[in-house]
Amino acid sequence: MNAIRTIKVLGRWSLNRLQGKRMPLIAVFSMTHYCNYYCAMCPFGDPDKDAQMRLAMHRDLSTEQWMHIMSKVAPYVIWSIVEGGEPTSRKDILELLEHLKGLGLPVTMITNGSLLHTLDLDRLKHCVDYICLSIDSLRQESYCKIRGVKPEIFKRVMSNLMLLKDHNIKHYINSVITKWNAEEFITQEYFDIAKNLGIKTVSMTFVEDRADVNYSLLPDRSTMVKVCNSILDYMERYDEPFILIPPLYWEQIIEYGRVLFDECGVWKSIFVNADGTVMVPCWKYKDNAYNLLEHDVEYVWSREEWAEVKHCRECDVLACIWYSSQSPTVLANGYMRGIRMLIRKHLG
Ligand SMILES: C[S@@+](CC[C@H](N)C(=O)[O-])C[C@H]1O[C@@H](n2cnc3c(N)ncnc32)[C@H](O)[C@@H]1O
């Protein structure tokens, strides 16, 4: 059922492309302005949690508004990503995930994992395809430094990771590589611990430095090269844990210190903020927002402003932008890499 839906949506999208029309293919729903974490690399890490909570209470979409927007977006896309803020901090998160599933959309929820034990996991299992657990470091000390939380929270996240396993909920972990955890990738300890924990898939990306702060968390150039070489080495030697970000991303960073692409593909995702707005062409254009409560997807995607980022190269290492900006050949290679891994695993 889902495969037929995906083929239909992809077919329509390809026809639009042939006519030079930009349309989204992936939906990202940023469910709330609130996050219970303090990550230095993330704007949602704002330490003034009272103000953030007030903002969430005043500006977050209601359950009905989110359902309305999700229904509006669903016909255009083949996958949905639910994140935030911290999506699990919303009381209605399961209801909203169920709504998305009911629309026939595959769902990945990105979460810090600290509140998963408060959810009905048997219900969660039926309304997500994957949980992406953000675990930047598998060492308690570095994790707490990057995420600005106490050791008890790290322990809670690790025990919630085990809950996902116990409930057979498909999951992978994601790390943002900063100068505070780069060493763990150079020594490959991150992968070894992940493997010992029974984690089958990991994803990681270098931190994209924020423009609104006066510090950088990116490791220096020579450390970045060491990280990339080590990740490439691990990929070549081991199938597990499977590393989602393909070799080309790491190779480009070794060679150029950043990633390359011809045209920014930010328009391939529809990124809906917690108040229903979409910033066009991207989050750097805060004053140019259209609210999906008022406008249709077609109207927003036909704006001329999208052309403004065509030649923008401001995102140095952001993996999601890199991926959406790659040619169909690179994407097909990535797909085949996944299939090859699955075949190797099943044939022993
Ligand atoms: C904004 S968070 C929201 C979801 C949830 N609160 C969490 O921590 O997973 C979504 C993802 O973006 C990643 N992220 C945050 N800031 C980033 C940055 N500056 N560069 C790259 N990834 C970042 C997080 O680690 C997380 O995996």
Supply the key terms.
single chain, 348 residues, alpha/beta, TIM Barrel, two-stranded antiparallel sheet, 14 helices, 10 strands, 43% helix, 13% strand, binds S-adenosylmethionine
Protein described:
The chain has 348 residues and is α/β, with parallel strands linked by helices. It has one domain: Alpha-Beta Barrel (TIM Barrel). The chain has helices at residues 2-18, 49-59, 63-73, 93-102, 121-127, 140-147, 151-166, 182-186, 189-196, 221-237, 247-256, 297-301, 319-324, 328-346; strands spanning 26-30, 79-83, 107-111, 130-134, 171-177, 201-206, 242-243, 269-272, 277-279, 289-291. The strands form two sheets. The chain has an eight-stranded parallel beta sheet, with helices on one face. It has a two-stranded antiparallel ribbon with strand order 9-10. Helix 3 (63-73) runs parallel beside helix 4 (93-102) and helix 10 (221-237) runs antiparallel to helix 11. The mean pLDDT is 95. The structure holds S-adenosylmethionine.
